[in-house]
Amino acid sequence: MKLNHLNLVVADVAAARQLFETHFGFRHQLTRGANALAILEGSDGFVLVLAHGAPPVQYPKPFHIGFFCPTREEVQAKHAELHAAGLSPEMEPRMVHGSFGFYFTALDGGLLIEVACQS
Fold first, then answer.
1. Concatenated DSSP letters of 59-106
2. Which three-class secondary structure state does DSSP give residue 14?
3. What does each C-alpha distance from 52 to 2, 5, 91, 95 come to in angstroms?
4. What pLDDT, in 10s, does the model give residues 91-113?
5. Rounded to 5 degrees, what angle do the CA atoms 10, 36, 9 make?
């Protein structure tokens, strides 16, 4: 059995779509309504559904989504990219729970994202 998709509830579907397309390589597949739903696909075929939810969207702690990079250099490059885009990750890449990476909050603080690599 393979995990097929994840449905994230977000306050601003367009902003979430831009984040995942611009910084995490997802490709747009379908949009419904002005801010109702967007379906994105990752390079590995994983489907990410972004559905509108009334603000403020609050996920329980420590809920997060995680992206793995092959190397420490790619983790550091992603950190620099996000910082340059004004997303300002709160922490520098470092060893966390046996991986080298960092966490940052996105989408008006509604979603915690991890970027890491195996150490």
1. PPTT--EEEE-SSHHHHHHHHHHHHHTT---SS-SEEETTEEEEEEEE
2. helix
3. 26, 16, 28, 34
4. 899 998 899 999 999 988 889 99
5. 20
Q: Which domains does the chain have, with CATH numbers?
A: 1-55 (3.10.180.10), 58-119 (3.10.180.10)
Q: Single out the residue of 69, 26, 19, 21 nearest to residue 44, CA to CA.
A: 26
Reported pTM: 0.92
In tens, the pLDDT along 52-89 reads: 998 778 889 889 999 999 999 999 999 999 999 999 88
3-state class of 15 per DSSP?
helix
Residue 71's alpha-carbon distances to 29, 92, 99, 104, 117, in angstroms, are 29, 15, 11, 19, 6
Output the 3-class SS for 23-34.
HHCCEEEEEECC
